[in-house]
Amino acid sequence: MLYLAKQRLLPAPRIEINRAQAVQLRQGLLLSPILLPDPSGCEDYEFGFLNVSRSFTARRINWVCADMPKLWRYNLHYFDYLNDRSRSSDSLAEIVSDWIDKNAIGVEDAWEPYTVSLRIVNWIKWFLDDSFDTIPRQEWLRSLCLQAAWLEKNIEHHLLANHYLKNAKALFFAGAYFAGSDAERWFRKGLKILCEEACEQILADGGHNERSPMYHCIVVEDFLDILNLCLSNPDLVEPREVDMLRQHTCTTLDFLQDILTPDGQIPLFNDAAFGIAPRPDALFDYAQRLIQYRRRATEYGLSICSKPDSGYYVIRDSNDMLIVDCGLIGPDYQPGHAHCDTLSYELFLDKRRIIVDTGVHDYENTAERAYARSTRAHNTVVVDSEEQSEIWGVFRVARRAKPLQSRLKQLDSDRVKFEGAHNGYQRLPGKVTHHRTIEYDRKHGWYITDSLRGGGRHHVESFIHLAPGLSINSAPHGPTIVLEDSAGTGITQIGLPDNLEAEFMMGKYFPEFGVCQPNQVIRLFGEVELPFTTGYRIRGINAAE
């Protein structure tokens, strides 16, 4: 709280460097090939972020772009595109010089600490790239030095989490790239924070403490980049510190393997979408090349995996998978990327997404942002139209749902059972708690049972979000409905409960930032007296009796 008050009340410190003095560089610094972004397909002065593109001409880039969302503007200033090999070196050089000319120190968006942190690392990666055929100009180096000096005075102690890690990574890179007393201080400060935050932010089960699979992938790349610099320059960091960073990085990679979905992607719990973080297969390839990390062979048959610190529980049966979220929504000091998804799940049958998390559309104060974070946007239970956790604004949470129990157990070679509960509704009259059991039987499919304990009469809703492309057969087979694909082929059956009404409605699915796809949602609802138990069954057509 002290850092937050200081950040809000005190002006940013002024930073000056001697513009007449040549900047000193560390001699012989190396960097192995980095993880390159996917080719954007953009022209030299075209920028595409969040599925929105804008085109400019040389020396006429609009760095303000007031009509674009803030996250889009941030991406413009991150400079990830410096490592897009489809762009010409000459145009990239022009873009860097244009940025320096038009973005004086302290300018909004361009000089926010997180933005500065990403830009510092991207510029250094570009400068160290052997395929870059232009020697970095003194004006670029002075600007980079100025940015590092400014960042040192504006570290995001008030936000911590992944922002703090990015700040440390940037200071570490800048301190390694430059020479002199300032650079040595940046380097030591960055390394100290990185070592501390590896222990703080990487949980014992390997997950990142913000509980977002997307940010987990971003953090994996961060640590691989840090190891890249360490291993490419063996005298840079003490072996014991390198070993510690390597061990934490390997645990994050193990975690990613354990939650990887059958389509090779991530689940979309909390703030997570495709197309922002590196793809999992690209991360594994980078890790194999850099630290000889080897993925485990694909397992077939029934298996379970519990990640109790992160709150993720995984049931796999060959190409089928269910992953349920029953953990804290994030660290107490930074819940900004949390959604109301406690006891929600995603289900895959034959490598295909069947029941989906809604994802995330944007980071603006929009109806889409509010919906994506709401309880009704997830495959879980809503009581009295209240949220599990009280979501405020774009990145804030007040009272938060906490897990009361969570356990995943394999009963025998054909059966698995998950049990979990949370206290998010105990603030309601009757002190309601939501308990969920998910049982899997290889012969009969998935049984989801919800028990609401407490007292009084309450309005109950349970939501099931179907993947786009799936439709509900309009003629139910008794209490069972059939999900069909776009060709009209039945692929899944859902047995509905007899103690709640069912409504089929249209929903919204946000697999990527800026993308909204229609999908069908099953809403089960009713006025009930507590305690109350209900449930439904899901099974593939091929598994039907």
Sheet having the most strands? 8 strands, antiparallel
User: Low-confidence stretches at least 5 residues in length (pLDDT < 50)?
Assistant: 1-6
* Count of individual beta strands: 21
Structural class by SSE content = alpha+beta
**Helix content, binned percent:** 25-40%
> Approximately what portion of the residues adopt beta-strand conformation?
15-25%
| Strands in their spatial order, largest beta sheet | 11-12-13-14-21-18-17-16
Query: Radius of gyration in whole Å, from Cα?
Result: 25 Å
Q: Please give the alpha-carbon distance between the first and last residues.
A: 59 Å
* Rounded average pLDDT: 91
Instruction: Indicate the overall shape.
Output: elongated
What does this structure look like?
This protein is α+β, with helices and mostly antiparallel strands. It contains eleven helices and 21 strands. It has helices spanning 2-9, 70-78, 89-102, 113-127, 138-152, 161-177, 181-201, 213-232, 239-259, 280-291, 367-373; strands at 46-49, 52-55, 302-307, 312-317, 320-325, 345-349, 352-355, 381-383, 391-392, 396-397, 403-412, 415-422, 433-441, 445-453, 457-465, 471-472, 480-484, 490-495, 501-509, 517-529, 532-540. Strands 11-12-13-14-21-18-17-16 form an eight-stranded antiparallel β-sheet, with no helix packed on it. It is elongated and about 80 Å long. Residues 1-6 have low confidence and may be disordered.
